[in-house]
Write a structure and sequence with these properties.
globular; about 80 residues; 4-stranded antiparallel sheet; two-stranded antiparallel sheet; mainly beta; 6 strands
Amino acid sequence: MLLIPCPWCGDRDETEFHYGGQAGVPYPAQPAELSDVDWGEYLFVRDNPKGKFAERWSHSAGCRRWFSIVRDTATHEIVR
């Protein structure tokens, strides 16, 4: 079981959350000028490192707020 620290509700079981993907992905500066391939890369291609990784989570069964955490993908340790 993974305990995820919600900034508003405290530590909760991972079943209360929804994973939102990689954090810090910038929106394209000129979205109207992107090709279909570029849009596909923006929407679907993400980093998949072994180690510390910034992620977005939503506390869907609690306060319903979005927040970012850094989690080690090898050990699942969460760095606040």
